[in-house]
Design goal:
By secondary structure, the protein is α/β, with parallel strands linked by helices. The protein is 47% helix and 13% strand. The chain contains 17 helices and twelve strands. It binds alpha-D-glucopyranose (GLC).
């Protein structure tokens, strides 16, 4: 699952607990781990498959309006079909409130929503850099009753696109502190990467990210290449192609880049893992090397909750997370040499790793547990519901 999908599960989990009387239906474009996790929380899951063209239309910021418009034109028939199917499904579910979780669904949800359903967009990425999406969302924002964003940065960006009159509420993401813990099973990263086991005492440094180019895989590899071989360090890229959109690097390119940098033997590529917490636990240092502002940076909080020190470029939402505690070293995204120096510093200093790791753990426990979302999310929903349905859904009316 990607970060936004994990957030959706957090939302389902906290609602299930905070508002047990509310039935939850989850509509997805494909079956898979997300559907399974939603069912585990007793949500009723409906899979309405995306066509191939619709699945591919997405997060790319490249190409400008022209090429995106061309792609949209070729997608239009299946988008219209999807809107029709979604409208009839929603007509059967009759939701009091619809929460959409990704750009395509923000647009399709607004176009397909039945009369009388409140609409909440949960925005996980910057809108302004996506020319076509920004245009569509600007037009449709008046159909929403609230917009949640995953950081203040994304809230500011969204406000620029949709205007000041829309109700925008930043809610920083949370993680499941029962899943992301320092203790528990650890993945064998060497075996997963097809490498021989690293000798005892090797410091394992990992980047966990999708293949989107701006996650900074190359910066990560360059940083590793700059580490003096006197430090026993092994790097791991944990992840792969998660979305069928086009802003992806390829795993093959990254492997060749590692070989060209002379670190083919010092870096492993595990592929996508289904237990991220067990991957974090297997690492000594987590690198978050996004070279563009990160909308939120969920990986940083997950690493902290597992008690791991983080090295980050601290751009966008990542800077907001860091304002809650002292558990990370910050680097300039244009300076692979500084990443190499930070890795070396942590590799040589187990006490510093330990101090940052335990600061991260207490920061995650204090500020990023699901109990915060259990307060903040229902409050936004109830306000949106009261806009549409009057006082029917306020807590006092429920009581
Ligand atoms: C998106 C963002 C990431 C964020 C996640 C969850 O994937 O790129 O920064 O952590 O959504 O909100």
């Amino acid at each position: 699952m990607g970060g936004a999908e994990a957030c959706l599960i957090d939302a389902v989990a906290v609602l299930r607990q905070a508002r047990p009387g509310w039935p939850i239906a989850v509509v997805l474009g494909e079956d898979g781990p997300l559907a399974k996790r939603a069912r585990d929380y007793d949500a009723e899951v409906h899979v309405l498959p995306f066509s191939r063209e619709l699945a591919r239309l997405g997060d790319s910021g490249e190409g400008g309006l022209g090429s995106l418009a061309a792609r949209l034109a070729s997608t239009a028939p299946s988008a219209l079909r999807y809107r029709f199917q979604l409208h009839s499904l929603l007509g059967r579910i009759k939701p009091d409130l619809i929460h959409t979780n990704g750009f395509k669904m923000h647009v399709l949800g607004a176009l397909a929503k039945p009369l009388g359903s409140a609409l909440v967009w949960h925005i996980h990425d910057y809108v302004s850099s996506r020319a076509l999406m920004a245009k569509l969302m600007r037009r449709l924002a008046s159909l929403t009753d609230a917009i949640i964003t995953n950081s203040q940065h994304v809230a500011d960006d969204t406000r620029e696109v949709v205007g000041a009159s829309t109700n925008i509420v930043p809610i920083l993401n949370v993680v499941d502190l029962k899943e992301f813990t320092p203790d528990g099973p650890r993945l064998d990263l060497d075996r997963l990467s097809g490498l021989i086991s690293a000798p005892e005492g090797t410091v394992r440094v990992g980047l966990i990210a999708t293949l989107a180019w701006w996650k900074g895989h190359r910066l990560f590899l360059q940083g590793l290449a700059g580490v003096d071989p006197k430090h026993a360090v092994r790097g791991y890229y944990i992840g792969g192609a998660l979305y069928q959109t086009q802003s992806q690097s390829s795993l093959g390119d990254l492997r060749s880049a590692a070989r060209e940098l002379g670190i083919g033997e010092r870096v492993g590529f595990t592929g996508i893992v289904s237990e991220p917490a067990a991957a974090f636990r297997a690492l000594d240092v987590v690198v978050h090397s996004s070279t563009e502002p990160e909308p939120f940076g969920r990986v940083i909080v997950e690493a902290a909750a597992c008690g791991k020190p983080v090295i980050t470029t601290a751009l966008g939402g990542a800077a907001e997370i860091l304002s809650f505690g002292d558990f990370a070293l910050k680097i300039d995204p244009r300076r692979p040499d500084l990443l190499a120096a930070s890795i070396s510093k942590l590799a040589a200093n187990p006490d510093l790793r330990q101090t940052l790791g335990s600061n991260g753990l207490s920061t995650a426990r204090r500020h990023f547990g699901r109990e915060r979302l259990a307060r903040e999310l229902p409050a936004v929903y109830e306000e949106a519901l009261s806009r549409v349905h009057g006082a029917k859904f306020t807590r006092s009316a429920e009581a």
